[in-house]
Every structure is written in structure tokens, then in C-alpha cells.
User: Fold Lipoprotein from Acetivibrio saccincola.
Amino acid sequence: MIKIIKKNCLIIFIILALALLSSCVAKNSEDVDDAGDVKYNNDAEKDVTDKDSEYDRNTEANAGDEEKINSEELAFTEVNGKEVKDILVENAGALLNDYTKIQLPEEYSIFDVSKGILNNDDVLDIAVVVEKTPGLTYEDRQLYVLLSNEQNGYDILIDKNDLVLGSEDGGPFGDPYSGTKIENKTLEIKNYGGSSDRWGTTEKFKMIDGRLKLVEERILAYSNTTASGEIKIIDFLEKTSKTYSVSETNKDGEHLLDSKSIRVIEDVYFDEKKPEKYYEIINEKVFFNKAEYGEKGALYLGMPMEEVERVLNEMNVEILNEIEITSHPDDWNYGNKEFWMKDYHIEFDKKDNIYEIYVHGNIPTERGLKIGDPIEKMEELYGENYKKSTDGGETRFRYDMGDYKFWGIFSEDNKLKIWALARNLDID
Assistant:
């Protein structure tokens, strides 16, 4: 009887051992998570440490039946060949329209978010500024753009251009970051800072040939002391640079000071470091009487004396007098030569190139200002961003036009007496 019991116990023990072994094998083959998704744990079937393989599997699943993908453990070290720091994206490669699905390390937080369409697919693209507390410098803030793609997923573009400044990068005025927005298929980034003298920048990017490219840059310089300033608008598509006056009563800067062409040395892309020099101003000739004689017969600042004599002769303009300035040997223009004509006279520099042109007769400026006009007319055409001085009953207004100066000299009755163009030689 005892032998039978021992034999039965042995059989039961063997059965239990086999059942336990079978359970372990099944557990090693597959494991069902709480969401009902199957996780592969058997190295022979799937290597979960291979993140590229897991990403491929997730992408294929999303392209098929749009099954929810569990990728909480998926951390990218690079996207499109570029390193991605301190960011985890849940459902990477899947439909992502909610920026809250961006997962950040504990020391980071989402600082600003904007949404809009950049790439013509009618799916919202997202710009996210993340900040490493307390975000004192630009190194503590980064701008990510989640750009929708054809696979109903997102490509991640990273700002490496120092476009978003830190809270202490703006000077006494405070945090210079003024916002990021996506509007009219354009990504716009603004910074504004300073103290008594203010400065501001606006960068605009558009999708061109599959990349976000800098298309416009606005640079503001404004003085609270004089309540005036300038804003330069550089159009990298049209290759032009225009400068406008900005005053207390003219915040829109509708008064154009100058307009120049630019030469793009190197294109600027959002996902690359901005080069120190990526454009240059093309110094165009500053003409004097182009409207009357055309470019071929016009005079311009810097024109050599020999060429001046040739052009005047061809245009049948008589030189009434040629003089040499002999005021005092210490004067900066001592020894300079002058040509006097009926309505204007020309002063040359030491190298016999035109330094300044004075107009006292019936020749209007390119903007239409003419002798006898009031100060208000000049301000309407040239703005109020000038330096004012008085000398012997005359009131002088000087405009800095970039490569040259424009002068308006008014008599005691506030009527324009002389207007002049002068090259910048650091001489007032």
C-alpha cells in the first residue's frame, strides 16, 4: 500500500513539474501587456534592444491598421542623421498632433508652443520651445519643429541657430524672447531687448525644396532718448535690403530711408548652424541727376574727376568755375577742388573723386523734394530720423542713409535753401 502511494506521488510530482516547465516556456515565448499588445521577449524571435528594428516594426504597424504603438521605452539618439538631445517622442513615426505627447527629462519643461501649416499638406506642424530651468542663456533653450510627413508621422527639426535667446540675453529690458508662430506657411521667431537703446530681431523661415530656409530678417535699432530709430528688412528671396525710419509717431516705419541689393554668400537653414557672414550689401552708385539725364549721363558719389568732365561735356553742361579750397591748412578739406555749375556745385576729395554735391537751383531730389519746400515736406518724404543743427541763421538736417548722407539746409523762413549728398568719410 505504501509503495502504491509513493508511486502515485511520484507521478503527481512529475506531472506538476512538466506543467510548470510548460508554463515557463510559454511565458518566455510571448507576454501580453495590459493594453492587449504583444511584446516579444524571446531573443530568437525579436531583439527588443535593437531600436531601429523596433522603429521599423512600429512604422509598419501604423501604416497598416493604425494600431496604437507602445513606444514609451523608445529613445532616439538621432533623427534623419542628426543627433536629438533630451527628448522622447511617444508614438514616434505615428500620427502626432498633440504636443503634450512630447516627453522631456525632469529638468526640462515646455516653454512655448505654436501650431500651423508649413509644408502644404493641410496637417498641423508644431513648433515647441523647451527650456532647461531656469533658461538663463540661449544654451538653455531649444526650438523643435515637428514637421508632418507623408507617413502620417513627423520629422523632427532642431534649432541649432541660437534663434531663441535666454531670459538674461536681453539686457536690463528683461527676457528678450517675444514669441514663435507659424502663419502663412512661415515660421517666425522674435527677440526684443535692450534698455534705453532697444534692439529687436525677427527671423522668418519657409519650406523651400524640402527644407526650412531663412527668407527674411528684420533688425530693429531704436532709441528711447530720441524716440527714433530704424528697422532694416532683408529679403533673401528678392535679394533686397530696405531701411525704414521708426519714430514715436511712426511705429510702422513707412518712410523708406534707403533701398539696396544684397548678395547671398551662404544660405541659412533652420537645422544648421547659422554662418557668421551669410550676406553682404551691394554698394550701389548714389546718383545725383539720373532722372534728368539717365544713368549714362548722371553723376554719382565717388565718380572720378576725369569721368565727371567727360560726362558734363557730353551733356553740354558748362563748368562756370573751378576753385581749390584754401581756408586753412588744418581743415579736413583744405586743397580739395570744386566745380561750379549753374544749379549745383561738386566738391572732390583728396583723390579727386566726388565727395559731395550741393544743389541750390531747380533740381529736385529723387524723392521729389525741391528748393523752397517747407521742413514738413522733407519730413514727409524722408522721415524724422535726422540730426539737427543751426549755423548762422540756417537750420541743417542730416540723414544717415547708410553709405552716404543726405542734407537739407533751410533758411530762417523754414524754406529749403540747399540740399546735398555726401559720402560717408566720418566727417560731420
About this structure: Residues 1-7, 20-97 have pLDDT under 50 and may be disordered. The longest helix spans residues 2-29.
